[in-house]
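Quick one: co-fold with NAP.
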Amino acid sequence: MKKIKIGLLGCGTVGQSVYKLLKLNRNKYLAILDGVELEIVKILVNDLEKDRDSIPGELLTTNPHDIIANKEIDIVIEVIGGTSIAEEYITEAIRNGKHIITANKDLMATRGQEILELGNEYFKEVKYEASVAGAIPIISTIKDNLQSNQITKVMGIINGTTNFILTKMFAERRSLEDVLQEAKDLGYAEADPTSDIEGLDAARKIAILASIAFSRRVKLENVYVEGITKISVDDVNYARQFKSTIKLLGIAILKDDAIEVRVHPTLLPLSHPLAKVDDVYNAVYLEGNAFGDLTLIGKGAGGLPTASAVVSDLLSIVKNMNKDILKVQNCSCYLDLLIKKIEDTISHYYFRMVVVDKTRVLSKIADAFASNNVSIDSVIQRKLPDGKAELVILTDRVLNKNMQSAREQIENLDVVIEIKSVLRSEKEY
Ligand code: NAP
Ligand code: HSE
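Sure, here it is.
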C-alpha cells in the first residue's frame, strides 16, 4: 500500500483534531485517494510531558528537524501559530521539498506573498484554507468555484470569539470579560485574546480574503481596524430600535479600480443574512458580477471544524500528487490596485452622545454636521437624570474625513458632555 508521510508541527487544539480526523475518516480517505494511506509520522511539540489524549507518545518530538529535514516526509502541516518560528520552519520545509498546509493567518497576512512565491519556485503547494473562517471553505470557493466572476464585495463575521462574545453580551447581558473567559475555555480565543477583541485576528483574515478576491496583495498593515471593546449594552438597545444588530465585520470592497479593506463593529439590519449568524459561527457574504450574492455560514473556530479545512487541503494535495501534477500556482495576486485611505471611504454613521438638556442643543449639533457636509438621516432623544439627555443620530452615507471633522467640532461644543460611541452602519434604515 502506498503511503504519504506527514509531519505535524504543533499538537494543540487543531493539531490533535487533525490527528483524530485522519483516524475517524480513514476509510473514506483511502477510497478517494485510490488506496493511498495518509500517515502522520512525526509531531513537533514544546512539552513532551503534556497530556495529549489519544496521540501515541513515540510520534512526538521537540526537534523540528525530525520533520522539516526528514526525507521520508512529503507534506508538512503547520499548526504552531505565531510568525517567526512558523515562517522559519515552513520555508525550510519548502526548500527541503515538502508541500505545506498551514492554519496560520498571522503568518499568511504578513508574509503570505513571500511564502507562496517560494512554493512556486520549488513547485510545492502551499494551502491555507483553515487560516480564514475555520470550517468554511471560503478560500477555495473564491479561488476555484467562483473564479468565473469578478468579486466586488467580501463581508464577513470572521472572528468566532468576538461573535460569541457579542452574542452572549446581547442575549445574557454579561460583561465582555466574563464571556471572553468562556471563549478561552472552549478553545476559540487566540493565545493572546487581545488580537480577537481588538479586531486584529479579523483584520488578518480579511487581508487574506481581499488578496484572493481582488488579485491584489493586501497585508495586515493595509487594513483599517477597530475592535469591540467600546461596544456597550446601550448601543445594542439602540441598534434594536433601528431593527439592527451589531457585528464585528471584516469588509473588503472593489469599486472604480480601487479597494478598501476594514474591520470594525457595524450596525447591521436584521434582514441581512449575516445578522442572524450568532455564537462562534462565522459567515462570509460575497457579491460578484455573475452570481449576484451568496453567503456561507459555518463554525469558524474549534479543533475539528478547523481540522476539516486542514484535512481537505491535505486531500487535495495528495490527489494532485497522485496525478503527478507538478506545476503549482499558489499566489494569484497580479494586480496593483489602489488601496483607499480610511479617510476616503464612505459609510452611514451612528453617533451616540450625552448632551445638556436645554434649548438650541440640537440645532448646534445639526449645524456642526451640516458645515462638514454630513447629512442627518434620523434622530432619537432620551431624557437622562440631572439635566442631561442622550442623543442618537444616524447619518446618510458620508465621507469618513467629513464625519471625523464633524465629530471633532461636536466634541468641542459646550452643550456636548461626551460622545459615547461612533459606529458605522451597513445600510439605510
Ligand atoms: P495551540 O492549541 O496553542 O497549539 C499550538 C501547538 O504548537 C502546541 O502543541 C504547542 O506545543 C506547539 N508549539 C508552540 N510553539 C512551539 C515551538 N516553538 N516549538 C514546538 N512546538 C510549539 O494552538 P491552536 O489553537 O491549535 O492553533 C494552531 C494554529 O491554528 C494557529 O495558527 C491558529 O491561529 C490557527 N487556528 C486555530 C483555530 C482554533 O480554533 N484554535 C482556528 C483556526 C486557525 P505544546 O502542546 O507542547 O505546548
Ligand atoms: N481566535 C479565532 C477566532 C480562532 O475566534 O475566530 C479561529 O481563527
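If it helps, The pocket of L-homoserine (ligand 2) is lined by residues 134, 159-161, 188-190, 196, 201, 300-301 (CB under 6 Å).
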